[in-house]
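pasting for the record
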Amino acid sequence: MERLSKVIANSGYTSRRNAEKLIQEGRVKVNGNKITDLGYKVSPFDEIHVDEIKIEKEELSYILINKPTGYLSTIDDHLKRRTVKDLLGLEESRLHLFATHKLEYDMAGVLIMTNDGNLTKSLQFANDKIEKEYLIRLKGIMIKEKLRKLRSGIQVENQKVKPIDAQILELDKKNQSTLLRIVVTKETHKDIRKALLILGHEIKNFTRIRYDFITLDGVERGSYRMLKIHEVKRLYRDRMISQ
């Protein structure tokens, strides 16, 4: 269920603010009934008319993007910086999409974009229970003692950053760097950066290779694919089980 004004705005008919004005003026009907309550919510099955014109609701879309660095995890930016919209086809770029779990500007990897507000809220509500897996290229050689400390947990301000798993995949002595794989749930990107800095390592490259069960398999950097129906159903189902 979503607010009536939001559904009207997402259809492209008008802005959210103007949609609220239309509702207050009594010009909006849902299933033939005039609605003036700004808090009124509708389902995907409700018919909406504004001044007797039927509102065609935007079809729900679920997109997996392999985000490159140097792109914002949004569709629009008032500073005109590059966003993931620039990676999408014409039809997808017109959708009112939001990231379920953003990646920072200098990060890459798994990014799920959707116009399904219910799924976005569900995933954000359960964020602390969802596994996120990262490949991180560090400056310097991480010794075993530091890896042991990371696995035991690093105190960062008021919380302990403790990955579910942490493995060194490569030690590049020539270029003095370490390739680290970690899996976390509640820890944010900033938490991970701070924990690694405490251990004496800056991050050179930060890539999310898995979000829950969604991976980058078959999706090259800078490209995207639509999530399959069974993947969307599983995202919903897993959240219901975890709650």
